[in-house]
Amino acid sequence: MKEAAETLSEQSPRIAVLVPCYNEEVTIGTVVRDFRAALPFATVYVYDNNSSDRTREIARAESAVVRQEFMQGKGNVIRRMFADIDADYYILVDGDATYEAAAAPRMLKEAIDNHFDMVTGLRVTDRKAAYRPGHVLGNKVLTSLVQHFFGRATDDMLSGYRVFSRRFVKSFPAASSGFETETEFTVHALQLSMPISEIPTRYIERPEGSTSKLNTWSDGVRILTTIIQLVKQERPLLFFTIIALFLAFVGVVLGVPVVADYMRSGFVPRLPTAVLATGCEILAALSLVCGLILDSVAAGRLEVKRLAYISCGCFNTE
Rounded distance, CA 71 to CA 89, Å? Predict the structure, then answer.
């Protein structure tokens, strides 16, 4: 760690450590101290999200730059951080003292040396209290879904420990308000074909007295909803083709018996079923047309995002 930190210090990039917080008075002091020790040349920013405890006071006492975001939700805090802070590289970490600060120089060096726009801290632990089986399963399922629709990026899509380049941060739209923002990070990088990487990092449980803000089921549903919305926005032809195929299948299943009756008797005895089958086929055609039109719109949006991404520039190590 010391060797990596010395190398980074010689290159002198502007480094910002971003710590979104909500009621983390038990852990925030440890987080700030550990990251100031690991990256003495970095500025640590603590953004408080309406905490009712002493989070702000403790962070200030540890010489962190403390600011506030009043709109509740991690995504809202990250949007504010990315808009307010100007740096060459950004390290995002939760304020719960579960992530390994000693890995920050390695992750940062990986990003700078290889010009990566995002380096994810891959959580590695043998402690069930740190990474509960339900969270592990949910992470694997949601990560697999994103890999299926957008391509493989990381084995830990929901990690809260990341290093970002300036051009990632300043081109990131930050539409989410809560914990689903981690999903947005991955999809944004994949859509723009950014160079990204991941490094294994040690992950531990929260210390005694610190409570998690995660809700396994409600946050999982929100993340799944976000994935569906991102598929609709970024890959509309696929999204609406799936709907069209479903409607066409239902129309065929309903319509075949009606057509068979007509061919046999010359009459349509089940008129409501015939109308419903016809409606399904019409809706299938409309869905496919919507997908084709929105696919052209998505291609235009992607070009705009790509231009915003390359216009931001990056830290030059040469």
Answer: 25
| DSSP code for 26 | T
Identity of residue 162: R
pLDDT tens, position by position, 93-145: 999 889 999 999 999 999 999 999 999 999 887 655 555 566 677 778 888 88
Q: What is the DSSP letter of 203?
A: B
- Residue 16 · residue 43 · CB < 8 Å: yes
What are 198's two structure tokens? 């991941």
Pairing of strands 43-48, 196-202: unpaired
What's the CA gap between 123 and 121, in Å, rounded? 6
Cβ atoms within 10 Å of 167's Cβ, excluding its own:
20
Total-model pTM? 0.83
- pLDDT-derived band of residue 150, with 50, 70 and 90 as boundaries? confident
The strand order across the sheet containing 43-48 reads 65-68, 43-48, 15-21, 89-92, 162-165, 118-124, 196-202
Neighbours of 276 (CB within 10 A): 16
Q: Mean per-residue pLDDT for 235-240?
A: 94
The answer to whether 180 touches 106, Cβ cutoff 8 Å, is no
